[in-house]
Amino acid sequence: MSPQENDVNVRWQTIVARYAIPDKWRSAWQVVNSVLPFLVMWYVMYRSLEISYWLTLLLAIPTAGFMMRTFIIFHDCGHGSFFASAKANDIVGILTGLLSLTPYYHWR
Asked: Is residue 92 a contact partner of residue 83, using CB atoms and an 8 Å limit?
């Protein structure tokens, strides 16, 4: 590895170092601003079925984005990197696994 590449690697490690340690408040906020909108959109989609299937299909687009965010949380919990506590990772992982239709312990 050249000195320039090594310098770039050191700079990147410095930049991402603060994200390498789980922060329980940041993690909890991510759960709130991902799972709650997903559940709300799911309900709105259900209610929109009475109005129009096209409206329901249109609402599925942002809902899929929130489902993807929920799956990402699930994935990070499976790695044990979302919370510092293994128990918190397991609890949130199981719940987000239910929402993303993926069994947590099988995924790990």
From this structure: yes
Is 90 a member of any domain? yes
How many domains does the chain divide into? 1
Q: What is the pLDDT of residues 79-93, one digit of tens each?
A: 999 999 999 999 999
Token couple for 62:
């942002």
For residues 55 and 25, what is the distance between their CA atoms, to the nearest angstrom? 35
Q: Is the whole-model pTM more than 0.85?
A: no
DSSP for 18-74?
Answer: GGSS--HHHHHHHHHHHHHHHHHHHHHHHHHTTT-HHHHHHHHHHHHHHHHHHHHHH
Residue 29 lies in domain = 23-107
Does any domain span residue 46?
yes
Helix 53-78 and helix 24-48: axis angle, to 10°?
A: 160
